[in-house]
Structures are given as C-alpha cells and as structure tokens.
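## retry 2 of 3
previous attempt timed out at serialization; input unchanged, resubmitting
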Amino acid sequence: MEDWYKLDHAGKLFPAVAGRENSSTYRLSMMLTSLVHEEVLQTALDEVISRFPLLNVELRNGLFWKFLREKETRLMVEPESTYPCAPVTLSGANGSLVRVLYHGNKISVEIFHALTDGGGALEFLKTLVFQYLYRIGESVEDRDGLILPPASFARYAEAQDSFKAHYTSTVSEIRTPEALQIPGTRFSPYGHNVIHGMIHASRLNAAAKQHGATLTAYLTALLIMAVHDSTLPLNNENRPIVISMPVNLRKIFPSSSLRNFFAVINIGVRIEAGMTFEQVLEIVQAQMKEKTTKPYLTQAMASSMKYEKNLLSRFTPLKL
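## retry succeeded, writing output
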C-alpha cells in the first residue's frame, strides 16, 4: 500500500484558494559561483528526495478531505522556462507539487504551500545544494546539522502537524481593522512580477541598528511609509496600512516538523499628519514585540483552528 499523509492545518487552505491568480506556490533560490550541471543536479536530487518524502507527493481527493500520496514517478530537474511561481498541477499523476529548477548558476525550488512552509523548504534546498556541491567535487562540510541522506525519514517528528500538537482552546478572537487596499494596475499574468535589486547587507543592518531596531522591523516601517507616500491622495478614510508578516512557530513552540508551522501576524499603522518615520518604527516594534509572544501566538493558532475543529465542516463532503 502506498504511503499517504493528511494535509496539515495550514496546508488545507491552499488547495482551496489556489488558481491562476493565486498559485499558492513560492520559491527559494541559491546562487552558486559556477554554472549548474543538469546531470549532477539530477543525481543530487535523486539522492536527497528519499530523505524528504513529504515533498514527492501528489494531491488526491477523499470523500471529506484532500490528502497527499507518495508519487511513483521520478521528480526531474528542469531548466527555468517560465515566470516564477507559476501554478502547479494539482491533479493528475504527471503533475508535481514541487519544481527543482536551474538557470545559469542558480538553483531554485518552487513548492506548493500545502506541503510545507519556508522553514521546511529551506532545509530541503540546503540539503540539495550541499549534495550537489559534494557531487561536483567541492570541499563541503556540514557544520549546521543539515538533514542529509541516507538517514531515514523521522516519520513522526518530521511529519507532525504541529498546529494540532500545540493547540490550546481559547475564547478570545483576534480582530484586524479594515486595511487600506493599494490601488493600481494588475500584472499580466496576474500577480507575477520580478524586480531585481542589490544591497549591501552590512549597510542595511547598520541602518537598522542605528535606529535601535531589528532588520525586520526597520524594513516593515520603511514599507509602511512607502505605501503611505504613494497612496496619500487616495486614502481619504485614513485606513491603517497593514503588513502581513509570517512567523516561524518552530522558534517558539518545540517542533522538528518539516510541514507547515507558521502564523501570520498583522502589523498595522494608521498614519496621522506629521508622523515621522521614527514614530512609525516605534509602533511597528511595539506590535511585533506583542504579537510574537507565546500567549499571542497560542491565541492566533486557536483562532485559526476553530473552523477545523467544527464537526459540521469536518464531515461535509468535499464536493460541497
């Protein structure tokens, strides 16, 4: 019998909302110092994918819910040929929820979000690149505790739905005020556009440190100010500018899961006349400090999972 897996709590959302305008697929890339050799990359992938069976799966429909089943076909590397994060094939034996791409000296992985989050994807990419470099004869050493083959898949720990493991029922509700919707012309294909930019990480970190802020808080405040400046004549109701920010829950709740385990917090600022960047940054830092605490994130998980715990929704036929 083929191995199959339930979708984790967060993973259940993405097949429902995925489509041409929202692929629910994301990309991580790593740049090398030499051109990528397709044959060697394929060999590395063949060796690595058995250590990450949760990524070599296809999406199937059950009576009440979708589930993941291990694929029998080989996952193949591909040259990059289309725009980033194009929709994956959600049905059919020939479709794949994961792409391993190469272009010049770049190796990329694109993953349908129902399988894992950025934390799990990063572990896969690091292992893949390590194995590739080893295969081309580079002197590489594992100093960070990578998940390397041929060690066996830790089925319980790495396949755990950590949302359920750390779920605690609460009664309070997290509410977000109606945010400013940024106007503009849609991209074609919708939602896909790439802007390349280069910046010195050390200088950026120094700028954040100069303001006594973390890099994340500093960039979030800059983004809020940029949105405010570009939409000022159009925000007649002075709605707050809200930035949705993913939080890796593995840093707060103990988990070795390679599946989705993240929360989204909303950082919102209603900019009043005369507010300075420093004032906006202070508000951002205060909200980030509050919303990344264990009690707040426990409440956020409970608020998200209440629909899954509803018996009516759990046992409604999938077609409905």
